[in-house]
Sequence to fold (308 residues):
Amino acid sequence: MPLHPQVQTVLAAAPPREAVTDESLPRLRALLRAQAAAVSGPGTEVATVTDVDAGGVPVRLYLPGESGEAGAPVVVYLHGGGWVNGDLDTYDAVCRYLAALSGAAVAAVGYRLAPEHPYPAAFEDIDNAVLWLRGKGATEHGLDPHRIAVVGDSAGGHLAAVTARRWRDVGAGFTSQVLVYPVIDPTADRSAAAVPGLPEELRAVQVADGRFCWDSFAPEGFDRGHPDLSPLAADLAGLPPALVITAEYDLLRPEGEAYAHALAEAGVPTVSVCYQGQAHDFFRGLVLFDAARAAIAQVAATLRAELA
Fold:
């Protein structure tokens, strides 16, 4: 289908989008924070929201008020932003809504950003946060360390996919993984033919942003064929059940769908869903796109089933 009318309206009203560069990055970080309420709204009320120190890593913990005798299951949320942008505030409304609908505690991880902190800094922070959530954090906040899922969007989807595999490798795998238009392949086709119908202005910005973000996260000298950077290079057998969400008009759609197919081929229970007419980053747009609330509701329903 063509671009959804809501997407067309937002694109028509938006000023020309500035590509990410070393010079523009501070402005774009501030802009993302300033626009969060207009894009995502104030957020749903939940029982408690607490900023905690999780082994030296900032984590915002959302408790929906539902927990059984064994404690609340946990969703580790890893935000998008190309590894260079985004923070706990920009994804606050998303995490509130996800906690309210899923009945799980949502732990949003404020991992360090590139280019100031390139790979593997983000994974170090995520690992420390997960260790805390499975230990001291579980005890202090009434969480169930045996029912834990990992969720991420865009670059956060990449971090979530790799985190799921890294923890499987040490014998402490997650219960479930949800990847929302994940970044998967550093060498993916970014040509106009990759996603037919994608408006050229969207493609051009995504290409420029993707190049900057990859160069910031994994600069020259890192092997981008390593499974930590190219998840398709890993052995995927034995990974937790996966929900992979993509957007029809997103340059990341083909690689997200390819990863979902590879998971299924490896025997991982996998559901892949493409939201028709949507563009990249629709998931945050709770006050802009009907599809955002539908997608988060789908994620929440999946988590309820997997973490039950």
The longest helix spans residues 200-217.
